[in-house]
Design brief:
Low-confidence stretches: none
Radius of gyration: 19 Å
Strand content: 5-15%
């Protein structure tokens, strides 16, 4: 297949390598053009994957979509607000697109934009992955380091019934098994990063501000784990109010790191002792704050208000981080055009799909 990968930071190029290694043709598009500058048809991977593959570069969205069988959107959630209108205007009705990750009901926002532009009721489904198929970092214009390849990531879809179809597509393209989630709301609530990253950022903000080196799992001390558990409990109550289920942070860490289930502080200590150092951010302007709070914790608070669910710990973390950083951590343009109290059948059927 030919897959259009929108986003050329680290995740997009790594997914291009995964696709190419499975015999597919990958074409990369960078929203700003910076991510593909200097990339001349070959991409080298090191780390967990050692390979050099052919990767095409598209100058425009239309070029990226031309002849594609599928598309993957792999950009941070804080880029969605400016990017989704461009995608809505260019995405062919026949082309399935998957978002990885899909925070803050971004697929629902995109579906609404496409319906407003006259998209066909029978257009291809949109996919929502709970997180990305792989992770790592960009080493240079034509090289990436792969630090993580996920074997399994839940996926939802608009319409919801298309989740198995899109899960099979993602597995064929990237090798990641994708069990079907109930709906895109379950995926939006199922990402544990807002909890782990929010708690870590609050407890280690001065380390970040002073650009110190710090090991993330070593800093998941019993106190930080208690905060994570409190946030996790509120998230579970919110999910139940919306009729969906989410795995606990402990279950996520067990699945992602292979440590035995147990008290959260014991699990994080075991990960810190056994795994290579996973270093935390060394600046306040990190996605832990600019992505995981507005499009994670703050988004959950909006959903909670619609159902009358109290989330005092979550609200306190958001308030404290906003006061400490001076950042507007409540702004979420993706949800501004959506009324959580009036979703109706949109979670099951999408918007403007008949």
């Amino acid at each position: 297949m030919r897959v259009a990968i929108l986003g050329a930071g680290a995740v997009g190029p790594i997914c291009a390598v995964l696709a190419a290694l499975r015999g597919h043709e990958a074409v990369l598009w960078s929203p700003s053009g910076a991510g593909t500058r200097g990339l001349a048809g070959r991409l080298r991977a090191e780390g967990l994957l050692g390979a050099e593959v052919a990767v095409a570069v598209a100058a425009t969205l239309d070029d990226a979509f031309a002849g594609a069988d599928a598309a993957l959107l792999a950009v941070p959630a804080n880029a969605h607000a400016g990017l989704l209108p461009r995608i809505a205007a260019a995405l062919p009705d026949r082309l399935p697109l998957v978002m990885a990750p899909a925070l803050s009901l971004a697929p629902l926002a995109l579906d609404g934009l496409r319906a407003g532009l006259g998209g066909a009721p029978g257009r291809a489904p949109l996919g929502a992955m709970a997180t990305t198929p792989a992770g790592g970092r960009r080493l240079g214009p034509d090289s990436v380091r792969v630090s993580l390849v996920r074997s399994e990531v839940p996926i939802a879809a608009l319409p919801a019934a298309a989740a198995p179809q899109l899960g099979a597509l993602v597995e064929a393209l990237f090798g990641t098994r994708c069990p079907a989630a109930t709906n895109v709301l379950e995926v939006a609530l199922g990402n544990a990063n807002p909890i782990t990253h929010g708690a870590l950022a609050l407890a280690n903000l001065t380390r970040m501000e002073r650009a110190e080196a710090w090991n993330q799992y070593a800093m998941m001390t019993p106190a930080v784990c208690r905060l994570m558990e409190a946030l996790d409990s509120e998230r579970a109550a919110l999910a139940a109010a919306w009729g969906v289920r989410v795995d606990s942070v402990a279950a996520y860490l067990h699945r992602a790191n292979g440590v035995p289930p147990g008290p959260l502080a014991e699990m994080t200590a075991a990960i810190a002792a056994s795994a290579g150092a996973v270093m935390g951010p060394t600046a306040v302007a990190t996605r832990y704050l600019t992505e995981d709070i507005p499009f994670g914790l703050s988004a959950w608070l909006r959903l909670a208000a619609a159902k009358g669910v109290a989330m005092p710990v979550t609200a306190s973390v958001v308030t404290a981080l906003a006061a400490l950083t001076g950042l507007d951590l409540a702004a979420n343009p993706l949800l501004d055009g959506l009324d959580p109290g009036a979703f109706g059948g949109a979670l099951a059927h999408g918007i403007g799909r008949g």
